[in-house]
Amino acid sequence: MGSLPPVGDMSLSSCQWPPKSPNPNPDLSPIDESTLLDLFKSQQNHLNFFFHNLDLSQTLKFTVTLLNAPGTIFFSGVGKSGFVARKISQTLVSLGIRSAFLSPLDALHGDIGILNSGDVLVLFSKSGNTEELLRLVPCARAKGAYLIAVTSVEANVLAGVCDMNVHLPLERELCPFDLAPVTSTAIQMVFGDTVAIALMGARNLTKEEYATNHPAGRIGKSLIFKVKDVMKKQSELPVCKEGDLIMDQLVELTSKGCGCLLVIDEEYHLIGTFTDGDLRRTLKASGEGIFKLTVGQMCNRKPRTIDPEAMAVDAMKKMEAPPSPVQFLPVINLQNMLIGIVTLHGLVSSGL
């Protein structure tokens, strides 16, 4: 009976992934670039069919109804259409529009209590014959909600029992059996998100208002955060006077994590900056003479600066601007008084 090789004798080749199968599944057909290209082209054609045949008058009526809805806009659907309905609702919420997803099953077991007169309920269904949605309709109508069906099959039951129907033209599913909902859900998503952006424009939503709905993400931070929100303040600043010897300020230069010295006068007016790069260049050029040089003699007296009320994202752009990028910007007020410093590391750490 053979023994296992010692652990130390195992080679990397014995741990390869994916493993090479000596007997590949004979039932699997190969996939190549040509096959994928044909599928993408077919899907493109199916989507073009939707774009060319969409009834814009229906779509406009639907959009205006949502825009003027006095209450909350609810979306509902089953299966893949339910996922799309939930996503569109979340898009509206991110735009500051009162919206929510209502599960048809949960609605029939108590959640319908959230519906009120003046609310709009949008029901997504490819066939328009989804049993759960049809059961929901009379209950939602009894609550006073306005009902809109969004369907793709002509003359369906759901369209006939709702107050409004929007037909999403569907040539066929990309699925070879015309069954798997892939093209139908794609056009539902395109339709819903496009209407959402139309509502965004009609409501004159500003970038600042949009940002307040995304405070934790990069979108919000780039539109909300100002320089004063992310800058190091006076107690953290690596400051010195122009008459100070360079070698006496090495601790200040290296201990504050800014990569520079901020040269100020007695009233805290900014005179210039001296960076660790300036230190290396001065040492190379002056040798032992550096022991006699002052910071004021070697500092940059025309550094890039920024106002505390400027947007933090603009500070990042200013750092990256030609002729060469910089790692920090002194923050000064209108009187040229130093009040802080913003660093590239600090901006990146804040999520910008």
Automatic annotation (TrEMBL):
Entry annotated with the keyword Zinc: no
Keywords noted in UniProt: CBS domain, Isomerase, Repeat
Keyword Nucleotide-binding: no
Residue stretches making up the CBS domain: 231-293, 299-352
Marked site: Catalytically relevant: K80, E132, E173, H214
Family note: Belongs to the SIS family. GutQ/KpsF subfamily.
GO MF terms, alphabetically ordered: carbohydrate derivative binding; isomerase activity
Entry-linked PANTHER family: ARABINOSE 5-PHOSPHATE ISOMERASE-RELATED (PTHR47476:SF2), PTHR47476
Positions of region (Disordered): 1-28
SUPFAM superfamilies linked to this entry: SIS domain
Pfam families attached to this UniProt entry: CBS (PF00571), SIS (PF01380)
GO terms classed as biological process: carbohydrate derivative metabolic process; carbohydrate metabolic process
Annotated protein name in UniProt: Probable arabinose 5-phosphate isomerase
Stretches assigned to the SIS domain: 63-205
Superkingdom of this protein's organism: Eukaryota
